[in-house]
Write a structure and sequence with these properties.
The protein is an alpha/beta fold. Helix content is 22%, strand content 29%. It has helices at 19-22, 83-99, 140-144, 146-157, 220-228, 244-251, 264-278, 291-295, 319-336, and strands at 9-13, 27-29, 33-37, 47-51, 57-63, 68-74, 110-115, 124-129, 132-137, 163-166, 183-187, 194-198, 201-205, 234-238, 256-261, 284-288, 304-307, 342-345, 358-359, 382-383, 388-397, 400-407, 413-420. It is globular and about 70 Å long.
């Protein structure tokens, strides 16, 4: 039953378009909307109520201009988006991290508190660096709510939090004309670069001037994986940024590590982080160079190569060129890494349709190792548009395979790895 005492704008869906919302999908696309009822002009970032064609309440969320018209905040009609609601959502996110042993861990004081839709807060990222929270808004609605978010953080963390930094200038929609400026919205940190701990490893993080929120906290599990498989290996970390994978590789017992990035500043920070953890004597080489060009000249020196490129595209129109770039660096890396070793790659896919490039082979002999997190983890998929198929030939362990790497177009064998652990 419709009950809109606050005279919010009302959005009515086309017949049948509520099906995904009944499954709790947090987005409403513009094509699903039949009509809008509101007093005056509907402004981007407003909280709107969403109804089925027959007038039944189904969701409440932030309105935005674009293909995603509403990012859902709640499916419960009785839930008002007020300060108590924000406090509750941040408290729930905190409790999840507490159960993961992140909030009171002597070995880790930096972690992602809020990860968008995963925490029922679409368009919001919050990273914790010891006693500072860094807020990054990806929607107008979240940006307009940032002070309520800050208040919720203060309520949940109390004296454990001394500063909240808003870093949304590069992530809010440009066309919204918000003129967002990064800065502290509560408290202040004494230094720009601060030392934080992740699984006992030390990192200098500068959330004011660094990429994203200062450190790629969502790569924590992948860094742990690198540490696990680095013992006795020579490691190349391309697109290294501040050297997260490099530090974990050295911690895991790598014989030597080379960190490569096009940014001299990033390479300097990677070198600082290595010295911070291992002193001056550890065999670490820091190279400021284009990673793709660097791969052309290394021979077969390395037996663990990490490719963690930035997003090659921010727009759909550039996806084809981006995929060619991913294909080039992956083919080059696969050809260069020694036989019988580990090869790891991350594919930034914010503008790539995950339903298109992936496919499932029913034949167990041809199950690729590029894994799609949207599917059950027991199945593996090939990243078809990269032009590379990964053929599993014989299972050795639960997480280890003999793999033949072939070009998808020509069928030409690129390399044979006796023990590929996993493509990350």
């Amino acid at each position: 039953m419709k009950n809109n005492n606050n005279m919010r704008a009302e959005i009515y869906l086309r017949r049948g378009k509520e099906e995904s919302l009944l499954r709790r999908h947090p987005w409403i696309f513009s094509g699903a909307i039949e009509r809008v009822k509101c007093q005056g002009e509907l402004k981007e970032g407003e909280v709107v109520d969403v109804f089925t064609r027959s007038g039944e309440f189904i969701a409440r969320g932030h309105y935005q201009i674009g293909s995603i018209a509403v990012r859902v905040l709640t499916f419960e009609e009785q839930e008002q988006i007020d300060q108590a609601w924000w406090n509750h959502r941040i408290a729930v996110a905190y409790d999840v991290r507490r159960t993961l042993d992140l909030t009171d861990n002597e070995q880790t004081n930096c972690y992602r508190l809020v990860h968008g839709e995963g925490d029922s807060l679409p368009g919001l990222v919050i990273d914790i660096y010891d006693r500072t929270a860094v807020v990054q808004c990806h929607s107008v609605g979240m940006y307009l709510s940032r002070m309520a978010i800050a208040e919720a953080l203060r309520t949940v963390y109390g004296e454990r939090l001394t500063a909240i930094y808003d870093k949304s200038s590069q992530t809010v929609p440009f066309k919204a004309g918000l003129n967002a400026i990064d800065g502290y919205i509560w408290g202040h940190a004494e230094k720009k670069a601060n030392i934080v701990l992740e699984n006992g490893e030390k990192f200098l993080v500068n959330w004011e001037e660094g990429q994203k929120t200062g450190f790629f906290l969502d790569q924590r599990r992948n860094r742990e994986l690198v540490r696990h498989y680095s013992k006795g290996r020579t490691v190349l970390n391309t697109f290294c940024y501040t050297g997260g994978f490099s530090v974990y590789a050295a911690s895991g017992g790598a014989l030597e590590v080379c960190s490569v990035d096009a940014s001299e500043r990033a390479v300097h920070l990677a070198d600082e982080n290595m010295r911070l953890n291992f002193g001056e004597e550890y065999p670490h080489e820091a190279v400021a160079a284009d990673a793709v060009e660097y791969l052309k000249h290394i021979g077969d020196k390395y037996d663990l190569i990490i490719l963690d490129p930035p997003a090659f595209t921010k727009t759909r129109s550039a996806v084809e060129g981006a995929l060619r770039g991913y294909k080039e660096i992956n083919l080059r890396g696969m050809k260069l890494v020694k036989d019988g070793v580990v090869y790891g790659v991350n594919i930034p896919a914010s503008q790539i349709n995950v339903n298109g490039p992936y496919y499932r082979s029913e034949d167990p002999r041809y199950q690729g190792l590029f894994q799609d997190s949207n599917y059950d983890s027991s199945h593996y998929y090939s990243y078809k548009q990269l032009g590379v198929n990964l053929y599993r030939t014989r299972a050795l362990e639960v997480d280890s395979y003999d793999v033949q790497i072939c070009d998808a177009a020509s069928g030409e064998t690129i390399a044979t790895f006796e023990k590929v652990v996993q493509i990350v």
